[in-house]
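wait is this the right file?? whatever heres the structure
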């Protein structure tokens, strides 16, 4: 599967642009702020129904415009061609279309066009709280398991209801055990499904991650990840019962799979505290490439790989190892952005496959 064409209208800093891509390697060069990352964000939007930047639809609209439209043409090895359109008009809800038909449920779209993006803000996986690391897990599992995505959505909906109920109890100085129990009975089922999938993901991720880190760093350090969950010690039913009084005091559900985390380690120590900038960048690259390989294995399809500004803060040795890794393995369709065209040209000088280089200048793309 690959993206053959992208058309943008009033998306971020693009007034109107059509880009025809190579099915293997696409490089976008230009100064910072010219719109390179916006192209990757548009691809991310088409594949996962959301911007990688996390911006709301109104903030994706070009300045002084009232709408945006993003159109992508995907081709599969079977010969099938699919057109995906994301469009938004101010004051209305965003609409997704597949071959001209409006998608009623976006969850049915997730996973049809798997994608992995590696970006500078990946540093949040290490430096920020557990929410970013759970999002990393969920982004992977939701793209290959409809059961996981449905269970996660159900759990999150019930969690919102339960937290709203706990807050209401506190505000009105009353407690309705039967009403809370009606929600609590529904939570353990989807929680168990999510927990099981995450445990399986951990076991498949670890060897892939270690292998990629060794390839990028030259085997300089030992790295690891460890999944942590309240459900490893107790069932969800037990957690809800044991923490009831605490939940009432804090007016929220204090234990469960929504508190899961990944411990990220280097030489047995937390990466956050002891890794250099180069080590941290290598760590995050390896983590994302492991995510990519896990997705390919589970879906049987090579995801689109989006690499945004990946060479910054990597020494020459790590860059050489990374480039050899990317070009030496079959990563399907790859998109790379960089501020230095000369560096991009050096990167692909040893690549014998099909590639295209695009110059991005203030929302205008040329070859």
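ok assuming it is, sequence goes like this
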């Amino acid at each position: 599967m690959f993206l053959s064409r992208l058309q943008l209208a009033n998306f971020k800093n693009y007034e109107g642009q059509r880009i025809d891509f190579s099915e293997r390697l696409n490089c976008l060069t230009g100064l910072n702020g010219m719109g390179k990352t916006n192209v990757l964000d548009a691809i991310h939007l088409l594949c996962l129904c959301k911007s990688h930047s996390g911006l709301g639809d109104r903030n994706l609209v070009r300045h002084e415009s009232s709408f945006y439209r993003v159109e992508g043409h995907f081709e599969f090895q079977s010969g099938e061609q699919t057109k995906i359109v994301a469009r938004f008009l101010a004051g209305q809800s965003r609409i997704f279309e597949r071959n001209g038909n409006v998608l009623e449920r976006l969850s049915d779209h997730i996973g049809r066009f798997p994608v992995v993006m590696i970006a500078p803000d990946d540093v949040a996986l290490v430096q920020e709280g557990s929410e970013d690391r759970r999002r990393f897990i969920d982004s992977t599992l939701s793209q290959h398991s409809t059961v996981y995505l449905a269970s996660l959505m159900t759990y999150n909906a019930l969690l919102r209801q339960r937290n709203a109920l706990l807050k209401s109890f506190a505000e009105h100085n009353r407690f309705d055990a039967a009403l809370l129990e009606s929600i609590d009975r529904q939570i353990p089922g989807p929680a168990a499904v999510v927990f099981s999938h995450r445990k399986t993901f951990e076991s498949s991720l670890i060897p892939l991650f270690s292998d990629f880190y060794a390839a990028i760093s030259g085997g300089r350090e030992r790295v690891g990840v460890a999944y942590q969950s309240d459900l490893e010690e107790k069932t969800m039913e037990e957690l809800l019962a044991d923490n009831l009084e605490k939940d009432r005091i804090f007016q929220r559900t204090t234990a469960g799979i929504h508190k899961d985390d990944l411990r990220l380690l280097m030489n047995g120590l937390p990466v956050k505290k002891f890794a250099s900038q180069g080590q941290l960048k290598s760590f995050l690259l390896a983590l994302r490439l492991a995510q990519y390989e896990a997705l390919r294995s589970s879906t049987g399809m090579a995801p689109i790989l989006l690499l945004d500004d990946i060479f910054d803060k990597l020494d020459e040795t790590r860059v050489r190892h990374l480039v050899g890794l990317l070009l030496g393995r079959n990563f399907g369709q790859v998109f790379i952005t960089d501020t230095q065209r000369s560096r991009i040209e050096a990167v692909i000088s040893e690549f014998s496959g099909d590639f295209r280089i695009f110059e991005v200048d203030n929302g205008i793309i040329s070859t």
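Residues 188-217 form the longest helix (30 residues). so i think its the right one actually
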